[in-house]
Amino acid sequence: MKERSLEHINRIIFKDVENSSVMILPWTTEDDDKKEKYFYILEEYFKSLGAVYVDQIKNPEEFDSNIDRVFRSNIIYLPGGLPWVFMEYANKSMKIRDVLQNYNRIIVGNSVGALVMCKEMIITADEDHPQTEILPGLGLVDFSVEVHYNVSNDEELLQLSQEIKIYVLSE
Q1: Which of 62, 78, 116, 118 could, after both became Cys, cross-link 144 (CB 3.0–4.6 A)?
Q2: CA proximity to 147, closest of 164, 124, 127
Q3: Residues 6 or more apart from 52 whose CB is under 8 A from it?
Q4: What are phi and psi of 54, to 5 degrees?
């Protein structure tokens, strides 16, 4: 089991949301086995924090016919994974983008889940990415985040921050 270093923050969220119901949108991977495995882990975790109900829309193709389920929840959770996978789904269906932009409750994102909420997704160069990329995100917030922050990217982030408001998120 992973270390849950932000559990104290999540507990505050769940304490403040009465009868919390979480909707997981696990579209940061195309691997259905991973989606299923992580759903059970996340379901157990969110219930341990006080969630009354945890649900997911496993396939984005089913989103349009399940929007009512999204709005019955009071927290949306976007997990880590691959940003372009999530954005590909979001760009295929304007309803996904519209619903998330008009959802007036809590949206929580972990790693890529936080990244896709930004207007611009900054993916800095590392062992998986040969060069830094700036890609369009959902535009739910008017800033960008550097997830898995590493001090070795400071010079580049400082330069990028002249044009883009960037918050760094360490492990």
Answers
A1: 118
A2: 124
A3: 19, 20, 21
A4: -130, 130
The 10s digit of each residue's pLDDT in 79-121 is: 999 999 999 999 888 799 999 999 999 999 999 999 999 999 9
Q: How far is it, in rounded angstroms, from Cα 2 to Cα 79? A: 14
For residue 38, give both structure tokens.
């992580």
Q: Using alpha carbons only, how large is the chain's radius of gyration in Å? A: 16
**Taking the C-alpha atoms of 122, 101, 45 and 8 in order, what is their torsion angle to the nearest 10 degrees?**
70
Calpha distance 169→5 (Å, rounded): 12
85 close to 30: Cβ distance less than 8 angstroms: yes
More confident residue, 129 or 118: 118
Integer CA distances (angstroms), 167 to 9, 21, 79, 103, in order? 17, 28, 19, 23
Bridge partners, residue 109, by sequence: 78
